[in-house]
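Hi team, as promised in this morning's meeting, here are the two structures we talked about. I've kept the exact order from the run log so nobody has to guess. The first one is mostly here for context; it's the second one we should focus on when we meet again. Sequence first, then the predicted structure tokens.
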Amino acid sequence: MKLVPLGDRVVLKELDAEETTKSGIVLPGQAQEKPQQAEIVAVGPGGMVDGKEIKMEVKTGDKVIYSKYAGTNVKIDGEEYIIVRQSDILAIVE
């Protein structure tokens, strides 16, 4: 199954959370902070959204930082994804 976002939406796949701290302490699953970094899996076409012309500035494969409480979590074929608006993406990691 393939996700195809509409409008100015972007499909993200979270990058793995750090399992150890910089000092070497191993963190259990609940103590790990939710990662805010993700890789873009699919990008919507942009166009007219809410009466404004939206140009998509991100592309598939970009690694990005997104807003902590943004988006909708979906699970398809055992994989978890987040669907967010482009405006919820804060930066591209280069």
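And here is the second protein, the one for discussion:
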Amino acid sequence: MEITTYSKFRENMKSYLDDVVNDQKALYVTRANGEDVVVLSKSDYESMQETYYLMSSPKNAERLLHAIDEANKGLGVKRDLIEL
């Protein structure tokens, strides 16, 4: 995660925003007289929101974590999609 000051962010906003979107990395902006902020691309933010939603149900979180563990162990099964 890149870190910059509010002043530098304001001076180079286009460049910083382009980097956030193109590199898919968050930008940490420090402020002297306020809470620091994190700048994310819309797609990264939506991805985080979706993950939060999927993990908010304990049962669903358990299923997902189990599936990830199996996939990491090479126990996944590749299947073809059915065309409608």
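Starting points for discussion:
DSSP finds four helices and three strands in the chain.
The chain has a mean pLDDT of 95.
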